[in-house]
């Protein structure tokens, strides 16, 4: 299914059009998620993602316990919102020195939310403002978002790059032009930009060793392509090191390279569900799955349900990170990244660059944390 036909895009585009054309006025309460689910015939996962996209564009604000409202900042504008453009010429130097930009794939999942929330908290204490923009995992949008933030005369940038073999021209140009910038979550080989990332190698080893301690030997490693993405490459390295050090032989047949995540109306990629099910049926000896991303773990869990496999009795599933949308009493067994520490270190380095100071460390690795959940158990 192409991105153009994704149901969350349909919800997002419709509501955005209704806001920009005045059907919903600034300050208006828009329909609840339940009402949107009935109107469009989609799941809550789909409506929630569409609303997050609208919130990321500053079109709506979601207030816990009250509902979702059209941003009120447009109330006094006599220009139709559909025709409003950002005019940066009048921005004062004083205002620009207090603005930090953050480009991130999306505002979803505990790690991403923790990164942004803690960045904003630190900046607020310094009397500064955070401008967040989402690339939704597309390099074209990533480049556009960076250019838009530059037009706002941001003092510095934090960039969480999209996955892929190549870096977009905007990041390379900023490196050449020496704009204060720090990369989080990934290294960029060949481009010596300062970066802050989690210790994905050790985190993956901890997770794999835990599976081995439970007696699992037939373990599948499921990921999107690792090429060009240091985060995923490090997780695979940690996985393979743990297997090799245990004395077991790595089985290349258990390595599953999935296409990138494409959401359907139920919050799943139907092609991935079919592929995973076909794989598990062909390799029924597998007792555990190591997923490099939380979304993959969700897909495996859904497939297990469809196949009548019990988790964790018949199949153990572990992954990296999690989602705050999950109930507190149920979570995947996982390794969690410390978004607060990553954000704090990224800002420390960024301000050192801005102030022209010699940083004590330009490349920082943050420890991860193992969290026991409800999807792991001893080999049957």
TrEMBL record:
This is GntR family transcriptional regulator. It holds the Pfam family Peripla_BP_3. Keywords: DNA-binding, Repressor, Transcription, Transcription regulation. SMART domains: HTH_GNTR. PROSITE patterns: HTH_GNTR. PANTHER family: LACI-RELATED TRANSCRIPTIONAL REPRESSOR, RIBOSE OPERON REPRESSOR. It comes from the Bacteria. Residues 5-73 form the HTH gntR-type domain.
């Amino acid at each position: 299914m192409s991105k153009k036909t994704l149901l969350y895009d349909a919800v997002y585009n419709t509501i955005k059009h209704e806001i920009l054309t005045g059907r919903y006025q600034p300050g208006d309460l828009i329909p609840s998620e339940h009402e949107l689910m009935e109107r469009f015939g989609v799941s809550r996962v789909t409506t929630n993602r569409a609303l997050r996209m609208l919130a990321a564009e500053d079109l709506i604000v979601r207030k816990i316990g009250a509902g979702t409202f059209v941003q009120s900042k447009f109330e006094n504008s006599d220009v139709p919102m559909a025709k409003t453009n950002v005019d940066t010429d009048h921005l004062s130097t004083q205002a620009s020195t207090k603005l930090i930009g953050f480009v991130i794939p999306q505002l979803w999942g505990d790690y991403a939310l923790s990164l942004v929330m803690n960045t904003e908290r630190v900046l607020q204490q310094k009397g500064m403002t955070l401008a967040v923009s989402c690339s939704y995992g597309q390099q074209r949008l990533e480049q556009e978002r960076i250019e838009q933030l530059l037009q706002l005369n941001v003092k510095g940038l934090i960039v969480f790059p999209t996955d892929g073999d190549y870096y977009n021209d905007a990041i390379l140009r900023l490196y050449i032009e020496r704009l204060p910038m720090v990369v989080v979550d990934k290294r960029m080989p060949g481009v010596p930009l300062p970066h802050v990332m989690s210790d994905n190698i050790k985190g993956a080893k901890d997770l794999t060793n835990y599976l081995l301690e439970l007696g699992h030997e037939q373990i599948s490693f499921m990921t999107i392509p690792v090429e060009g993405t240091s985060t995923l490459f490090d997780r695979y390295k940690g996985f393979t090191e743990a297997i090799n050090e245990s004395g077991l032989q790595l089985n290349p047949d258990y390595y599953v390279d999935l296409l990138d995540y494409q959401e359907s109306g139920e919050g799943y990629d139907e092609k991935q569900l079919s592929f995973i099910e076909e794989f598990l049926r062909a390799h029924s000896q597998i007792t555990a799955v190591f997923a490099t991303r939380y979304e993959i773990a969700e897909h495996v869990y859904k497939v297990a349900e469809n196949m009548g496999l019990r988790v964790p009795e018949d199949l153990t599933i572990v992954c990296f990170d999690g989602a705050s949308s999950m109930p507190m009493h149920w979570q995947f067994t996982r390794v969690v990244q410390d978004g607060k520490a990553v954000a704090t270190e990224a800002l420390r380095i960024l301000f050192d660059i801005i102030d022209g100071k010699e940083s004590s460390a330009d490349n920082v690795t943050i420890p991860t944390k193992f969290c026991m959940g409800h999807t792991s158990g001893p080999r049957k």
